[in-house]
Amino acid sequence: MEAPLCSSCHHHSPFYRRENEGAVLCKNCFRESIERRVRRTISHWKMFGPSDHIAVAVSGGKDSLTLLMILKKLSKRFEQAKITAVTIDEGIGGYREEAVDLASQYCKRLGVDHQIVTFAELYGSGLDDFLRGKQNRLTACSYCGVFRRKAINVASRKVGATKIATAHNLDDVVQTYLLNLFQGDVDRFARFSPVLRDPRGGFLPRVKPLCEVPEREVALYGYTEGLTFQSASCPYMMEALRNELRTVLNRLEIAHPGVLFTAYRAMTRLRGLAEPNVPASELHACRSCGEPTPLEVCEACKMVGVPTERLDIQT
């Protein structure tokens, strides 16, 4: 009996079996299928223009390095496009140092400009030091998520970017959608989109080119390209509800291949039904830092603790 061949090229031995499609792919066809899916996602959602300056949020992990590599390949077709990698150093000891080093190495290898911004610069201390000063605190991920979103926007504007690309994969997107549901965040639940635009221009548009690629395939693509992955895990990850949800969804995907894609398609359809009924939040400048926010003082400044006299000066 002859050994099976790649379902796509019919010439080479299989490297990966895509269970939800019932297809087996050789290494080259697998790699090309990922790049093709990313191109299709970018085109379908109209993520980029030919002259965009794209700030790629590069943490140094497998997803962000893979995204940077793919976007660098695609950018060769658009001479006016520019890519700058933006890395946020949260100040997590024993974890972030390795990731920042990896990000710097790959940016040099790819010939991509690299901007590093730290929590200490923006908020006065790194995440470790900030959490040590909190007696009764939220989870580390709650603080980090708010601080990172603001930091990425600040850093991307600093380099003159017109778009921000983040490396959220299919697993991340479905997890976030369900988290918003479980936490009762109706606004975010209704406004799911791989492209987030602020019509008032306060926040740079954010796009998720990997949103239709499963996490395991992102990692495998990086492996085929010889990427070195970060060995350390975030010491705070076990605090997050997301980690439990990830475990549940992984088990479901193993038992029922394709369930993540089914959930993603349902999300996109529900968005069209729910979005017209959810009014957009009115944004204005934070009275402390000037960043856009629907509140008087942005969430990041509230978490840090804004002195009253600073608010009086800014008013």
Can you offer a commentary on this structure?
With 315 residues, the chain is an alpha/beta fold. The chain folds into two domains: 35-280, Rossmann fold, CATH 3.40.50.620; 284-315, no CATH class. The protein is built from 13 helices and ten strands. The strands form three sheets. It has a six-stranded mixed β-sheet, with helices on both faces. It has a two-stranded antiparallel ribbon with strand order 1-2. It has a two-stranded antiparallel ribbon with strand order 9-10. Helix 3 links the parallel strand 4 (82-89) and strand 5. Helix 2 packs across helix 9 (215-224). The protein is globular. Mean pLDDT is 87; it is low at 308-315.
Keywords, separated by commas or semicolons:
315 residues, alpha/beta, Rossmann fold, six-stranded mixed sheet, globular
The largest sheet is:
6 strands, mixed
Number of structural domains? 2
pLDDT average, as an integer?
87
How many beta strands in the DSSP annotation? 10
N-to-C SSE series? Answer: EEHEHEHEHHHEHHEEHHHEEHH
At CATH level 2, the architecture of the largest domain is: 3-Layer(aba) Sandwich
| Structural class based on helices, strands and sheet pairing | alpha/beta
**End-to-end CA span:** 79 Å
What is the spatial order of strands in the main beta sheet? 5-4-3-6-8-7
Helix percent band: 40-55%
Low-confidence stretches: 308-315
> How would you name the CATH homologous superfamily of the largest domain?
HUPs
